[in-house]
Amino acid sequence: MSRTIEAFLKKAALDRKFTALVAEAAPSLSGHHLARSLASAGINTILIPDSAVYAVMSRVNKVILGAHAILANGGVYATAGSILAAHAAQTHQTPVVFCAGQFKLSPLWNVYHTYGSLDFANPSHVLGFQEGQLMDQVDVLNPAYDYVPPELINVFITNE
């Protein structure tokens, strides 16, 4: 969950009335915490499964995402699933906005991989170790971040 996005939406709600569609962000389900926090602040909030992002995109006015790092080429490392939201937004001609503090601006380029990072989270969050027989037969990947290329991004919002 991005505390920056949470603060941004809560501040925006002081001047505007809107509905926030929040993806659940599996497997961490950090979207549940964000949805609860926004709803408790009086923001009309709808929690959706990650698989529904494309299906609801035609009803979305803008996609607002948090950044882990903004790279020198204008691309962004963001929470896994961000690339799916950005592609869905591009298909539906919906603007993609990234909110991040200036400390997340990086002089580095994405030199490792075109579509993602080399950071992976614990695979047991996707498929528990209690599934012993299946774990022996399946390689489980749980990428921590997506690389969102600059051509999918419309606006950056930073502090200052």
What is the structure about, briefly put?
This protein has 160 residues and is of the alpha/beta class. The chain is built from five helices and eight strands; from the N terminus they run H-E-H-E-H-E-E-E-H-E-H-E-E.
Outline the structure in words:
This protein is an alpha/beta fold and 160 residues long. The chain has helices spanning 3-12, 30-40, 53-56, 82-91, 132-137; strands spanning 19-23, 44-48, 63-66, 69-70, 76-79, 96-99, 145-148, 155-157. It has a three-stranded parallel sheet. Strands 4-5-7 form a three-stranded antiparallel sheet, covered by helices on one side. A two-stranded parallel sheet has the order 1-2. Helix 2 (30-40) links the parallel strand 1 and strand 2 (44-48). The model has no long low-confidence stretch (mean pLDDT 90).
Essential attributes:
single chain, about 160 residues, alpha/beta, three-stranded parallel beta sheet, globular
Low-confidence stretches: none
Task: Please tell me the overall pLDDT.
Answer: 90
User: What is the alpha-carbon Rg in Å?
Assistant: 16 Å
Strand content: 15-25%
Give the termini separation.
Answer: 22 Å
Helix content: 25-40%
Strand order of the largest sheet: 3-6-8
Order of helices and strands: HEHEHEEEHEHEE
Beta strand count: 8
Q: Categorize the overall geometry.
A: globular
Query: Helix count, per DSSP?
Result: 5
Content-based structural category: alpha/beta
| Main β sheet profile | 3 strands, parallel
